Amino acid sequence: MKYKKIILAVVLFILLGISYCIVANSKYELSEKYSDFPVPISARLTKENENNSVYEWSMSSDENGIPISYRLIIWVNGWEKVVREGTLTIYEKDEVQIHLSSDRDEIIIGR
Known about the structure:
Layout: H1 2-25, E1 28-31, E2 37-40, E3 44-48, E4 52-56, H2 68-76, E5 80-85, E6 88-93, E7 96-103, E8 106-110
Antiparallel strand pairs: 1-2, 3-4, 4-8, 5-6, 6-7, 7-8
């Protein structure tokens, strides 16, 4: 009986984790410009040039960086954190590097 409760708890935990990933993933879209790097749907593009895109996004912070849900979606999509220095984090996937910088109410994604 004790093992059934443990197994049930583990299965519920896994199902909750999968459900969370599905819901969180629906809040992000993959950017063709940045090799399918996830970008928040609620972020508004304010500036763009050849190498960088600046988005206004209220979930970003200069002190706390990006939310854990965004970090999880980046990881789920196969991007690995290579370097973090201050507000800049560099992610890599298939030998492509993406720079993500977070500031108060703003993120910058670039190469």
